[in-house]
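Consider the following assembly input.
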Amino acid sequence: MRKRHSPKDRLITVALHVALAAGLFFAAFPIYWMLSSSFKSNTEIFALPPTVLPKAFTLEAYAAILGDPVKLRFFFNSYFVAGAVTVLTVLIALLAAYGFSRFNFRGKGSLNTLIISTQTIPPITLLIPFFGLVVSYGIFDTYVALILTYLVFTLPYAILLMTGYLNTLPRDLDEAVAVDGGSSWTALWRVIVPISLPGIVATSVYTFLLCWNEFLFALTLTKSASMRTVPIGIQLLMGQHAFEWNQMMAMSVLGSLPLLLIYLVAQRFFLAGMTAGSVK
Amino acid sequence: MTRQKRSRHRLKRAVAPYLYLSPSLLIIGLLMLLPMVTVIGYSFQNSAVLRRDPSFAGLKHYQAIFNDPVFWASLWHTLYFTCMSVVFHMTIGMIFALMLNSDRINPTLRNILRVLYILPWLFTAVIIAVIWRLLLEPNGVVNSVLMQMGIIGSKVEWFSSPETALHAVTFANIWAGYPLFMVSLLAGLQGIPKDFYEAADIDGAKAYQKLIFITIPQLMPIIISISLLDFIWTMQVFPLIWITTGGGPIYSTEVLSTYTYKLAFSSYNLSQASASAVVILLISLGLTLFYIRYQKAR
Protein backbone atom coordinates (compact mmCIF):
# COMPACT_ATOMS: atom_id res chain seq x y z
CA MET A 1 0.00 0.00 0.00
CA ARG A 2 1.07 3.55 -0.65
CA LYS A 3 2.11 5.59 2.35
CA ARG A 4 -0.54 8.29 2.77
CA HIS A 5 -0.17 11.71 4.34
CA SER A 6 3.59 11.93 4.05
CA PRO A 7 4.55 15.54 3.16
CA LYS A 8 5.70 14.47 -0.32
CA ASP A 9 2.47 12.62 -0.91
CA ARG A 10 0.40 15.63 0.11
CA LEU A 11 2.40 17.83 -2.21
CA ILE A 12 1.61 15.53 -5.12
CA THR A 13 -2.09 15.62 -4.29
CA VAL A 14 -2.05 19.42 -4.15
CA ALA A 15 -0.14 19.64 -7.44
CA LEU A 16 -2.66 17.30 -9.05
CA HIS A 17 -5.54 19.50 -7.97
CA VAL A 18 -3.80 22.60 -9.29
CA ALA A 19 -3.32 20.82 -12.62
CA LEU A 20 -6.98 19.77 -12.63
CA ALA A 21 -8.01 23.39 -12.08
CA ALA A 22 -5.77 24.53 -14.95
CA GLY A 23 -7.29 21.84 -17.16
CA LEU A 24 -10.76 23.00 -16.21
CA PHE A 25 -9.90 26.57 -17.16
CA PHE A 26 -8.53 25.41 -20.53
CA ALA A 27 -11.59 23.27 -21.28
CA ALA A 28 -14.36 25.47 -20.00
CA PHE A 29 -13.29 29.11 -20.26
CA PRO A 30 -14.04 29.51 -24.01
CA ILE A 31 -17.51 28.09 -23.43
CA TYR A 32 -18.09 30.25 -20.40
CA TRP A 33 -17.05 33.26 -22.45
CA MET A 34 -19.56 32.41 -25.16
CA LEU A 35 -22.31 32.05 -22.57
CA SER A 36 -21.50 35.23 -20.68
CA SER A 37 -21.08 37.24 -23.90
CA SER A 38 -24.52 36.17 -25.04
CA PHE A 39 -25.95 38.00 -22.00
CA LYS A 40 -23.95 41.18 -22.55
CA SER A 41 -24.66 44.16 -24.69
CA ASN A 42 -22.53 44.43 -27.77
CA THR A 43 -20.47 47.28 -26.34
CA GLU A 44 -19.77 45.46 -23.09
CA ILE A 45 -18.27 42.47 -24.95
CA PHE A 46 -15.17 44.49 -25.79
CA ALA A 47 -15.06 46.51 -22.58
CA LEU A 48 -11.61 47.10 -21.11
CA PRO A 49 -10.82 45.46 -18.79
CA PRO A 50 -13.06 42.55 -19.86
CA THR A 51 -16.01 41.87 -17.55
CA VAL A 52 -16.07 38.27 -16.38
CA LEU A 53 -19.73 38.41 -15.35
CA PRO A 54 -22.11 40.49 -17.49
CA LYS A 55 -22.26 43.85 -15.72
CA ALA A 56 -25.57 44.78 -17.31
CA PHE A 57 -27.25 41.41 -17.76
CA THR A 58 -29.50 41.56 -20.82
CA LEU A 59 -31.54 39.16 -22.91
CA GLU A 60 -31.62 41.51 -25.90
CA ALA A 61 -29.48 39.16 -28.06
CA TYR A 62 -31.85 36.25 -27.43
CA ALA A 63 -34.87 38.44 -28.06
CA ALA A 64 -33.36 39.54 -31.38
CA ILE A 65 -32.79 35.92 -32.48
CA LEU A 66 -36.10 34.49 -31.24
CA GLY A 67 -38.08 37.44 -32.58
CA ASP A 68 -36.78 37.02 -36.11
CA PRO A 69 -38.83 34.55 -38.22
CA VAL A 70 -35.91 34.08 -40.65
CA LYS A 71 -33.69 32.84 -37.82
CA LEU A 72 -36.41 30.69 -36.32
CA ARG A 73 -36.70 29.05 -39.71
CA PHE A 74 -33.00 28.05 -39.52
CA PHE A 75 -33.80 26.20 -36.30
CA PHE A 76 -36.87 24.56 -37.77
CA ASN A 77 -34.84 23.42 -40.80
CA SER A 78 -32.10 21.95 -38.65
CA TYR A 79 -34.56 20.06 -36.45
CA PHE A 80 -36.60 18.89 -39.40
CA VAL A 81 -33.68 17.65 -41.52
CA ALA A 82 -31.86 16.04 -38.59
CA GLY A 83 -35.10 14.42 -37.39
CA ALA A 84 -36.02 13.03 -40.80
CA VAL A 85 -32.52 11.68 -41.42
CA THR A 86 -32.44 10.10 -37.97
CA VAL A 87 -35.71 8.21 -38.52
CA LEU A 88 -34.66 6.99 -41.97
CA THR A 89 -31.13 6.08 -40.90
CA VAL A 90 -32.21 4.11 -37.86
CA LEU A 91 -34.78 2.12 -39.86
CA ILE A 92 -32.43 1.29 -42.72
CA ALA A 93 -29.46 0.61 -40.44
CA LEU A 94 -31.53 -1.65 -38.21
CA LEU A 95 -32.40 -3.89 -41.15
CA ALA A 96 -28.77 -4.03 -42.34
CA ALA A 97 -27.47 -4.67 -38.83
CA TYR A 98 -29.97 -7.50 -38.40
CA GLY A 99 -28.69 -9.04 -41.64
CA PHE A 100 -25.09 -8.71 -40.48
CA SER A 101 -25.69 -9.91 -36.96
CA ARG A 102 -27.99 -12.89 -37.49
CA PHE A 103 -27.04 -14.40 -40.86
CA ASN A 104 -23.99 -15.88 -42.49
CA PHE A 105 -23.77 -15.19 -46.18
CA ARG A 106 -21.29 -14.90 -49.00
CA GLY A 107 -19.54 -11.57 -49.17
CA LYS A 108 -20.29 -10.68 -45.53
CA GLY A 109 -16.65 -9.93 -44.69
CA SER A 110 -16.04 -7.73 -47.71
CA LEU A 111 -19.32 -5.85 -47.25
CA ASN A 112 -18.37 -5.16 -43.67
CA THR A 113 -14.96 -3.84 -44.77
CA LEU A 114 -16.68 -1.70 -47.41
CA ILE A 115 -18.92 -0.12 -44.79
CA ILE A 116 -16.02 0.53 -42.42
CA SER A 117 -14.03 2.19 -45.18
CA THR A 118 -16.89 4.42 -46.35
CA GLN A 119 -16.70 6.14 -42.96
CA THR A 120 -13.49 7.81 -43.98
CA ILE A 121 -14.44 9.09 -47.44
CA PRO A 122 -13.73 12.83 -47.47
CA PRO A 123 -16.96 14.85 -47.77
CA ILE A 124 -15.27 17.31 -50.13
CA THR A 125 -14.74 14.47 -52.63
CA LEU A 126 -18.44 13.70 -52.76
CA LEU A 127 -19.47 17.34 -52.78
CA ILE A 128 -18.76 18.02 -56.45
CA PRO A 129 -20.60 14.97 -57.89
CA PHE A 130 -23.48 15.59 -55.44
CA PHE A 131 -23.70 19.15 -56.61
CA GLY A 132 -23.86 17.92 -60.22
CA LEU A 133 -26.52 15.33 -59.36
CA VAL A 134 -28.62 17.66 -57.22
CA VAL A 135 -28.68 20.32 -59.91
CA SER A 136 -29.47 17.90 -62.72
CA TYR A 137 -32.36 16.29 -60.78
CA GLY A 138 -33.78 19.71 -59.94
CA ILE A 139 -33.58 19.24 -56.17
CA PHE A 140 -31.08 22.04 -55.52
CA ASP A 141 -32.11 24.11 -52.49
CA THR A 142 -34.61 21.53 -51.14
CA TYR A 143 -34.92 19.38 -48.02
CA VAL A 144 -34.71 16.28 -50.21
CA ALA A 145 -31.18 17.16 -51.31
CA LEU A 146 -29.99 17.58 -47.73
CA ILE A 147 -31.76 14.49 -46.42
CA LEU A 148 -30.40 12.24 -49.17
CA THR A 149 -26.84 13.46 -48.84
CA TYR A 150 -26.81 13.26 -45.03
CA LEU A 151 -28.14 9.72 -45.20
CA VAL A 152 -24.98 8.61 -46.99
CA PHE A 153 -22.77 9.87 -44.18
CA THR A 154 -24.88 8.69 -41.26
CA LEU A 155 -25.65 5.20 -42.56
CA PRO A 156 -22.19 3.55 -42.26
CA TYR A 157 -21.78 4.64 -38.62
CA ALA A 158 -25.32 3.65 -37.79
CA ILE A 159 -24.93 0.18 -39.31
CA LEU A 160 -21.71 -0.47 -37.37
CA LEU A 161 -23.21 0.82 -34.13
CA MET A 162 -26.42 -1.21 -34.49
CA THR A 163 -24.57 -4.38 -35.56
CA GLY A 164 -22.33 -4.05 -32.52
CA TYR A 165 -25.38 -3.75 -30.32
CA LEU A 166 -27.32 -6.64 -31.87
CA ASN A 167 -24.26 -8.87 -31.51
CA THR A 168 -24.51 -8.45 -27.75
CA LEU A 169 -28.07 -9.84 -27.67
CA PRO A 170 -28.45 -13.61 -27.15
CA ARG A 171 -29.47 -15.52 -30.25
CA ASP A 172 -31.75 -17.95 -28.39
CA LEU A 173 -34.43 -15.27 -28.35
CA ASP A 174 -34.93 -15.02 -32.10
CA GLU A 175 -34.17 -18.71 -32.59
CA ALA A 176 -37.15 -19.44 -30.35
CA VAL A 177 -39.35 -17.57 -32.82
CA ALA A 178 -37.91 -19.61 -35.70
CA VAL A 179 -38.67 -22.87 -33.85
CA ASP A 180 -42.28 -21.72 -33.50
CA GLY A 181 -42.35 -21.34 -37.27
CA GLY A 182 -42.08 -17.54 -37.31
CA SER A 183 -40.07 -15.82 -40.02
CA SER A 184 -36.94 -13.80 -39.38
CA TRP A 185 -39.01 -10.69 -40.11
CA THR A 186 -41.37 -11.56 -37.24
CA ALA A 187 -38.41 -12.22 -34.97
CA LEU A 188 -36.94 -8.83 -35.81
CA TRP A 189 -40.03 -6.83 -34.93
CA ARG A 190 -41.46 -8.95 -32.11
CA VAL A 191 -38.26 -9.85 -30.29
CA ILE A 192 -35.23 -7.88 -31.42
CA VAL A 193 -36.61 -4.34 -31.72
CA PRO A 194 -38.22 -4.22 -28.25
CA ILE A 195 -34.98 -5.25 -26.52
CA SER A 196 -32.74 -3.10 -28.76
CA LEU A 197 -33.99 0.24 -27.51
CA PRO A 198 -30.66 1.25 -25.90
CA GLY A 199 -28.87 0.56 -29.19
CA ILE A 200 -31.53 2.40 -31.15
CA VAL A 201 -31.31 5.40 -28.84
CA ALA A 202 -27.48 5.54 -29.09
CA THR A 203 -27.67 5.31 -32.88
CA SER A 204 -30.36 7.99 -33.07
CA VAL A 205 -28.40 10.35 -30.84
CA TYR A 206 -25.27 10.01 -32.92
CA THR A 207 -27.11 10.35 -36.22
CA PHE A 208 -28.92 13.44 -35.01
CA LEU A 209 -25.65 15.04 -33.94
CA LEU A 210 -23.93 14.34 -37.25
CA CYS A 211 -26.77 16.04 -39.11
CA TRP A 212 -27.11 18.91 -36.66
CA ASN A 213 -23.40 19.73 -37.08
CA GLU A 214 -23.16 19.37 -40.85
CA PHE A 215 -21.87 22.44 -42.63
CA LEU A 216 -20.28 21.78 -46.02
CA PHE A 217 -23.29 20.27 -47.81
CA ALA A 218 -25.77 22.67 -46.24
CA LEU A 219 -23.56 25.52 -47.46
CA THR A 220 -23.32 24.24 -51.02
CA LEU A 221 -26.64 22.52 -51.72
CA THR A 222 -28.97 25.21 -50.35
CA LYS A 223 -29.24 28.82 -51.29
CA SER A 224 -32.40 30.56 -50.06
CA ALA A 225 -32.71 31.78 -46.48
CA SER A 226 -35.75 29.54 -45.99
CA MET A 227 -33.64 26.39 -46.59
CA ARG A 228 -30.58 27.27 -44.50
CA THR A 229 -29.73 25.36 -41.32
CA VAL A 230 -28.38 26.70 -38.00
CA PRO A 231 -24.62 26.38 -38.77
CA ILE A 232 -25.11 28.33 -41.99
CA GLY A 233 -27.32 30.80 -40.13
CA ILE A 234 -24.50 31.53 -37.69
CA GLN A 235 -22.11 32.09 -40.57
CA LEU A 236 -24.59 34.39 -42.30
CA LEU A 237 -24.97 36.42 -39.12
CA MET A 238 -21.24 36.93 -39.18
CA GLY A 239 -21.30 38.25 -42.72
CA GLN A 240 -24.29 40.55 -42.26
CA HIS A 241 -23.41 42.49 -39.14
CA ALA A 242 -19.83 41.76 -38.31
CA PHE A 243 -20.19 43.45 -34.96
CA GLU A 244 -23.31 41.79 -33.52
CA TRP A 245 -21.19 39.45 -31.41
CA ASN A 246 -23.79 39.05 -28.69
CA GLN A 247 -26.34 37.79 -31.23
CA MET A 248 -23.82 35.39 -32.70
CA MET A 249 -23.09 34.02 -29.24
CA ALA A 250 -26.79 33.77 -28.38
CA MET A 251 -27.43 31.85 -31.58
CA SER A 252 -24.45 29.59 -30.82
CA VAL A 253 -25.86 28.88 -27.37
CA LEU A 254 -29.29 28.11 -28.83
CA GLY A 255 -27.65 26.01 -31.53
CA SER A 256 -25.76 23.98 -28.93
CA LEU A 257 -28.78 23.30 -26.72
CA PRO A 258 -29.85 20.02 -28.33
CA LEU A 259 -26.37 18.57 -27.96
CA LEU A 260 -25.97 19.76 -24.38
CA LEU A 261 -29.40 18.46 -23.39
CA ILE A 262 -28.83 15.08 -24.99
CA TYR A 263 -25.44 14.88 -23.33
CA LEU A 264 -26.74 15.72 -19.89
CA VAL A 265 -29.81 13.50 -20.10
CA ALA A 266 -28.31 10.54 -21.92
CA GLN A 267 -24.57 10.69 -21.32
CA ARG A 268 -24.17 6.94 -21.67
CA PHE A 269 -25.81 6.80 -25.10
CA PHE A 270 -24.02 9.89 -26.21
CA LEU A 271 -20.58 8.50 -25.42
CA ALA A 272 -21.51 5.13 -26.90
CA GLY A 273 -22.20 6.86 -30.19
CA MET A 274 -19.31 9.30 -30.16
CA THR A 275 -16.69 6.65 -29.54
CA ALA A 276 -18.26 4.11 -31.88
CA GLY A 277 -15.82 2.60 -34.26
CA SER A 278 -12.83 3.82 -32.34
CA VAL A 279 -12.72 1.58 -29.28
CA LYS A 280 -13.44 -2.02 -30.06
CA MET B 1 -41.14 -30.25 -40.92
CA THR B 2 -41.59 -31.86 -44.30
CA ARG B 3 -38.67 -31.89 -46.68
CA GLN B 4 -40.30 -29.34 -49.01
CA LYS B 5 -40.98 -26.98 -46.17
CA ARG B 6 -37.44 -27.33 -44.91
CA SER B 7 -35.84 -26.52 -48.25
CA ARG B 8 -38.11 -23.52 -48.64
CA HIS B 9 -37.06 -22.40 -45.19
CA ARG B 10 -33.41 -22.82 -46.15
CA LEU B 11 -33.90 -20.79 -49.32
CA LYS B 12 -35.50 -18.04 -47.25
CA ARG B 13 -32.53 -18.04 -44.86
CA ALA B 14 -30.16 -17.75 -47.81
CA VAL B 15 -31.97 -14.83 -49.46
CA ALA B 16 -33.02 -12.97 -46.30
CA PRO B 17 -29.68 -11.28 -45.41
CA TYR B 18 -29.43 -9.76 -48.87
CA LEU B 19 -32.96 -8.41 -48.57
CA TYR B 20 -32.20 -6.87 -45.19
CA LEU B 21 -29.04 -5.29 -46.54
CA SER B 22 -30.49 -4.13 -49.85
CA PRO B 23 -31.73 -0.65 -48.80
CA SER B 24 -28.34 0.18 -47.28
CA LEU B 25 -26.38 -1.20 -50.20
CA LEU B 26 -28.59 0.65 -52.65
CA ILE B 27 -27.96 3.96 -50.89
CA ILE B 28 -24.23 3.38 -50.43
CA GLY B 29 -23.89 2.19 -54.03
CA LEU B 30 -25.90 4.97 -55.66
CA LEU B 31 -24.94 7.86 -53.43
CA MET B 32 -21.40 7.00 -52.44
CA LEU B 33 -19.68 4.61 -54.83
CA LEU B 34 -21.28 5.99 -58.00
CA PRO B 35 -20.42 9.62 -57.13
CA MET B 36 -16.84 8.53 -56.47
CA VAL B 37 -16.67 7.10 -59.98
CA THR B 38 -18.33 10.27 -61.29
CA VAL B 39 -15.81 12.61 -59.67
CA ILE B 40 -12.94 10.58 -61.12
CA GLY B 41 -14.64 10.94 -64.51
CA TYR B 42 -15.04 14.71 -64.04
CA SER B 43 -11.33 15.08 -63.33
CA PHE B 44 -10.55 13.85 -66.86
CA GLN B 45 -13.05 16.18 -68.59
CA ASN B 46 -12.96 19.78 -69.73
CA SER B 47 -15.71 21.97 -68.19
CA ALA B 48 -17.16 19.10 -66.17
CA VAL B 49 -20.73 19.61 -64.84
CA LEU B 50 -21.01 22.96 -66.62
CA ARG B 51 -21.29 21.54 -70.15
CA ARG B 52 -23.45 18.72 -71.40
CA ASP B 53 -20.84 17.25 -73.77
CA PRO B 54 -17.49 17.77 -72.05
CA SER B 55 -14.40 16.82 -74.05
CA PHE B 56 -11.67 14.50 -72.78
CA ALA B 57 -8.88 16.35 -71.03
CA GLY B 58 -6.45 13.60 -70.15
CA LEU B 59 -4.23 14.40 -67.22
CA LYS B 60 -4.35 18.15 -67.88
CA HIS B 61 -6.18 19.04 -64.65
CA TYR B 62 -3.86 16.94 -62.54
CA GLN B 63 -0.88 18.69 -64.13
CA ALA B 64 -2.47 22.06 -63.45
CA ILE B 65 -2.87 21.14 -59.78
CA PHE B 66 0.63 19.78 -59.34
CA ASN B 67 2.02 22.94 -60.96
CA ASP B 68 0.05 25.18 -58.64
CA PRO B 69 2.14 26.41 -55.68
CA VAL B 70 -1.07 27.04 -53.72
CA PHE B 71 -1.87 23.31 -53.91
CA TRP B 72 1.50 22.41 -52.37
CA ALA B 73 1.08 25.11 -49.74
CA SER B 74 -2.37 23.70 -48.93
CA LEU B 75 -0.96 20.21 -48.64
CA TRP B 76 1.73 21.44 -46.27
CA HIS B 77 -0.78 23.40 -44.14
CA THR B 78 -3.06 20.37 -44.00
CA LEU B 79 -0.17 18.20 -42.81
CA TYR B 80 0.96 20.74 -40.21
CA PHE B 81 -2.61 21.29 -38.97
CA THR B 82 -3.31 17.55 -38.83
CA CYS B 83 -0.06 16.36 -37.24
CA MET B 84 -0.08 19.06 -34.58
CA SER B 85 -3.74 18.41 -33.84
CA VAL B 86 -3.31 14.65 -33.48
CA VAL B 87 -0.16 14.92 -31.34
CA PHE B 88 -1.72 17.46 -28.98
CA HIS B 89 -5.11 15.73 -28.89
CA MET B 90 -3.27 12.63 -27.78
CA THR B 91 -1.04 14.39 -25.25
CA ILE B 92 -3.80 16.45 -23.65
CA GLY B 93 -6.24 13.54 -23.79
CA MET B 94 -3.68 11.31 -22.07
CA ILE B 95 -2.84 13.84 -19.36
CA PHE B 96 -6.51 14.48 -18.58
CA ALA B 97 -7.34 10.78 -18.60
CA LEU B 98 -4.46 9.97 -16.21
CA MET B 99 -5.41 12.83 -13.90
CA LEU B 100 -9.06 11.79 -13.81
CA ASN B 101 -8.08 8.18 -13.22
CA SER B 102 -5.93 9.01 -10.21
CA ASP B 103 -7.17 7.68 -6.88
CA ARG B 104 -6.09 10.92 -5.24
CA ILE B 105 -9.27 12.73 -6.23
CA ASN B 106 -12.67 12.44 -4.72
CA PRO B 107 -15.10 10.40 -6.91
CA THR B 108 -17.74 13.18 -7.03
CA LEU B 109 -15.17 15.72 -8.14
CA ARG B 110 -13.93 13.21 -10.71
CA ASN B 111 -17.40 12.81 -12.21
CA ILE B 112 -18.00 16.54 -12.37
CA LEU B 113 -14.64 17.22 -13.97
CA ARG B 114 -15.12 14.41 -16.48
CA VAL B 115 -18.34 16.02 -17.68
CA LEU B 116 -16.71 19.46 -17.89
CA TYR B 117 -13.55 18.26 -19.64
CA ILE B 118 -15.68 16.72 -22.40
CA LEU B 119 -17.45 20.05 -23.06
CA PRO B 120 -15.40 21.26 -26.07
CA TRP B 121 -16.47 18.13 -27.91
CA LEU B 122 -20.15 19.06 -27.72
CA PHE B 123 -19.85 22.09 -29.92
CA THR B 124 -20.08 22.02 -33.65
CA ALA B 125 -17.16 23.30 -35.74
CA VAL B 126 -19.00 26.47 -36.75
CA ILE B 127 -19.64 27.41 -33.13
CA ILE B 128 -16.04 26.59 -32.17
CA ALA B 129 -14.90 28.89 -34.96
CA VAL B 130 -17.16 31.71 -33.77
CA ILE B 131 -16.08 31.30 -30.13
CA TRP B 132 -12.39 31.49 -31.05
CA ARG B 133 -12.96 34.45 -33.31
CA LEU B 134 -14.51 36.26 -30.37
CA LEU B 135 -11.72 35.23 -27.98
CA LEU B 136 -8.94 36.11 -30.42
CA GLU B 137 -10.44 39.36 -31.75
CA PRO B 138 -7.77 42.07 -31.74
CA ASN B 139 -9.83 43.84 -29.04
CA GLY B 140 -10.83 40.56 -27.42
CA VAL B 141 -10.18 39.02 -24.06
CA VAL B 142 -7.07 36.99 -24.97
CA ASN B 143 -5.18 40.01 -26.23
CA SER B 144 -6.23 42.18 -23.33
CA VAL B 145 -5.16 39.58 -20.74
CA LEU B 146 -1.85 38.84 -22.50
CA MET B 147 -1.11 42.57 -22.71
CA GLN B 148 -1.87 43.09 -19.04
CA MET B 149 0.48 40.23 -18.18
CA GLY B 150 3.12 41.83 -20.39
CA ILE B 151 3.47 38.79 -22.65
CA ILE B 152 2.66 40.76 -25.80
CA GLY B 153 3.39 44.43 -26.35
CA SER B 154 0.64 45.28 -28.80
CA LYS B 155 -2.59 43.76 -30.08
CA VAL B 156 -2.00 40.63 -32.15
CA GLU B 157 -4.33 39.95 -35.09
CA TRP B 158 -4.27 36.19 -34.53
CA PHE B 159 -6.46 35.16 -37.44
CA SER B 160 -5.58 37.91 -39.88
CA SER B 161 -1.82 38.02 -39.89
CA PRO B 162 -0.03 35.39 -42.00
CA GLU B 163 2.49 34.61 -39.25
CA THR B 164 -0.04 33.57 -36.63
CA ALA B 165 -3.16 32.47 -38.53
CA LEU B 166 -2.19 28.83 -39.10
CA HIS B 167 -1.10 28.41 -35.47
CA ALA B 168 -4.31 30.04 -34.25
CA VAL B 169 -6.62 27.73 -36.24
CA THR B 170 -4.54 24.73 -35.19
CA PHE B 171 -4.83 25.77 -31.56
CA ALA B 172 -8.61 26.11 -31.84
CA ASN B 173 -8.77 22.64 -33.34
CA ILE B 174 -6.56 21.18 -30.61
CA TRP B 175 -8.92 22.63 -28.02
CA ALA B 176 -11.95 21.20 -29.78
CA GLY B 177 -10.70 17.67 -30.39
CA TYR B 178 -8.87 16.23 -27.38
CA PRO B 179 -11.96 14.76 -25.64
CA LEU B 180 -12.19 11.83 -28.08
CA PHE B 181 -8.77 10.67 -26.88
CA MET B 182 -9.59 11.46 -23.28
CA VAL B 183 -12.80 9.42 -23.26
CA SER B 184 -11.26 6.49 -25.11
CA LEU B 185 -8.12 6.40 -22.97
CA LEU B 186 -10.16 6.70 -19.79
CA ALA B 187 -12.15 3.64 -20.88
CA GLY B 188 -8.86 1.91 -21.69
CA LEU B 189 -7.32 2.78 -18.32
CA GLN B 190 -10.26 1.25 -16.51
CA GLY B 191 -9.70 -1.95 -18.48
CA ILE B 192 -6.09 -2.49 -17.32
CA PRO B 193 -6.07 -5.31 -14.72
CA LYS B 194 -5.25 -4.05 -11.21
CA ASP B 195 -2.87 -6.95 -10.50
CA PHE B 196 -0.38 -5.53 -13.01
CA TYR B 197 0.09 -2.51 -10.79
CA GLU B 198 0.04 -4.58 -7.60
CA ALA B 199 2.78 -6.80 -8.98
CA ALA B 200 4.80 -3.71 -9.90
CA ASP B 201 4.30 -2.29 -6.39
CA ILE B 202 5.68 -5.48 -4.88
CA ASP B 203 8.74 -5.10 -7.11
CA GLY B 204 9.08 -1.52 -5.86
CA ALA B 205 8.33 0.20 -9.18
CA LYS B 206 8.13 4.00 -9.23
CA ALA B 207 5.09 5.83 -10.60
CA TYR B 208 6.79 6.83 -13.84
CA GLN B 209 8.03 3.25 -14.35
CA LYS B 210 4.48 1.95 -14.02
CA LEU B 211 3.37 4.54 -16.58
CA ILE B 212 6.06 3.59 -19.12
CA PHE B 213 6.06 -0.17 -18.65
CA ILE B 214 2.40 -0.92 -17.89
CA THR B 215 0.00 1.90 -18.71
CA ILE B 216 1.29 3.07 -22.08
CA PRO B 217 1.91 -0.40 -23.57
CA GLN B 218 -1.57 -1.47 -22.44
CA LEU B 219 -3.14 1.60 -24.08
CA MET B 220 -1.12 1.31 -27.30
CA PRO B 221 -3.86 -0.32 -29.42
CA ILE B 222 -6.29 2.48 -28.49
CA ILE B 223 -3.65 5.16 -29.06
CA ILE B 224 -2.82 3.85 -32.53
CA SER B 225 -6.38 3.34 -33.76
CA ILE B 226 -7.67 6.67 -32.43
CA SER B 227 -4.65 8.49 -33.85
CA LEU B 228 -5.32 7.04 -37.28
CA LEU B 229 -9.02 7.94 -37.16
CA ASP B 230 -8.26 11.39 -35.81
CA PHE B 231 -5.68 11.90 -38.56
CA ILE B 232 -8.14 10.90 -41.29
CA TRP B 233 -10.93 13.09 -39.90
CA THR B 234 -8.76 16.10 -39.08
CA MET B 235 -7.35 16.08 -42.62
CA GLN B 236 -10.87 16.71 -43.89
CA VAL B 237 -11.26 19.93 -41.88
CA PHE B 238 -13.44 22.53 -43.56
CA PRO B 239 -15.88 24.60 -41.46
CA LEU B 240 -13.39 25.64 -38.77
CA ILE B 241 -11.01 27.14 -41.31
CA TRP B 242 -13.75 28.46 -43.57
CA ILE B 243 -15.25 30.52 -40.78
CA THR B 244 -12.15 31.66 -38.93
CA THR B 245 -9.87 32.63 -41.82
CA GLY B 246 -11.44 31.38 -45.06
CA GLY B 247 -7.98 30.06 -46.00
CA GLY B 248 -6.39 33.49 -45.79
CA PRO B 249 -4.67 35.79 -45.26
CA ILE B 250 -2.77 35.30 -48.52
CA TYR B 251 -3.36 31.53 -48.53
CA SER B 252 -1.56 31.18 -45.20
CA THR B 253 -4.23 28.82 -43.83
CA GLU B 254 -5.39 27.30 -47.12
CA VAL B 255 -5.90 23.55 -46.64
CA LEU B 256 -6.78 20.91 -49.22
CA SER B 257 -10.51 21.11 -48.58
CA THR B 258 -10.76 24.91 -48.77
CA TYR B 259 -8.49 24.90 -51.83
CA THR B 260 -10.78 22.40 -53.56
CA TYR B 261 -13.93 24.21 -52.48
CA LYS B 262 -12.71 27.52 -53.87
CA LEU B 263 -11.71 25.93 -57.17
CA ALA B 264 -15.19 24.45 -57.48
CA PHE B 265 -17.48 27.15 -56.15
CA SER B 266 -15.55 30.42 -56.43
CA SER B 267 -13.68 29.83 -59.71
CA TYR B 268 -16.25 27.35 -61.08
CA ASN B 269 -13.39 25.23 -62.31
CA LEU B 270 -15.15 22.00 -61.42
CA SER B 271 -12.81 19.82 -63.49
CA GLN B 272 -9.71 20.97 -61.69
CA ALA B 273 -11.55 20.84 -58.37
CA SER B 274 -12.47 17.22 -59.16
CA ALA B 275 -8.83 16.39 -59.79
CA SER B 276 -7.96 17.91 -56.42
CA ALA B 277 -10.84 16.01 -54.78
CA VAL B 278 -9.52 12.76 -56.26
CA VAL B 279 -6.06 13.47 -54.82
CA ILE B 280 -7.65 13.97 -51.38
CA LEU B 281 -9.63 10.77 -51.85
CA LEU B 282 -6.46 8.81 -52.67
CA ILE B 283 -4.66 10.12 -49.57
CA SER B 284 -7.69 9.19 -47.43
CA LEU B 285 -7.99 5.74 -48.99
CA GLY B 286 -4.32 5.04 -48.35
CA LEU B 287 -4.74 5.90 -44.69
CA THR B 288 -7.99 3.96 -44.48
CA LEU B 289 -6.35 0.81 -45.87
CA PHE B 290 -3.67 1.20 -43.25
CA TYR B 291 -6.34 1.58 -40.54
CA ILE B 292 -8.33 -1.46 -41.66
CA ARG B 293 -5.20 -3.61 -41.86
CA TYR B 294 -4.24 -2.52 -38.40
CA GLN B 295 -7.73 -3.30 -37.03
CA LYS B 296 -7.68 -6.74 -38.66
CA ALA B 297 -4.20 -7.53 -37.39
CA ARG B 298 -5.35 -6.95 -33.83
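The radius of gyration of chain A is 24 Å. Ask yourself how this observation constrains the way the partners meet.
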